Amino acid sequence: MIAIIDYGVGNLFSLSSSFKSIGADTVVTGDPEVIRKAEKLILPGVGAFRDAAEKLRATGLDKVILEETAKGKPLLGICLGMQMLFEKSYEYGEYEGLGLIPGSVVPMKRVVPDDLKVPHIGWNGLIFPKNKEKSKIFKYLNEGDHMYFVHSYYATDCKDFVSSETEYGAILTASAEKGNVYGVQFHPEKSGEKGLSILKAFCEI
Amino acid sequence: MITKRIIPCLDVKDGRVVKGVNFLGLADVSSPVKLAEFYSRNGADELVFYDITASSDGRRLFTEILTEVASKIFIPLTVGGGINTLEDFDRVLKCGADKVSVNSGAIKNPSLIGEAAKKYGDQCVVLSADIKRVDGKFTLFAKGGRENTGIDAIEWIKRGAENGAGEIVVNSIDTDGVKNGFDLPMLEAVCSVVKVPVIASGGAGNIDHFKTLFHTLPAVDAGLAASIFHFGEVGIKDLKDELYKDGINVRR
Question: Is the ipTM of this complex over 0.95?
Answer without folding.
Answer: no
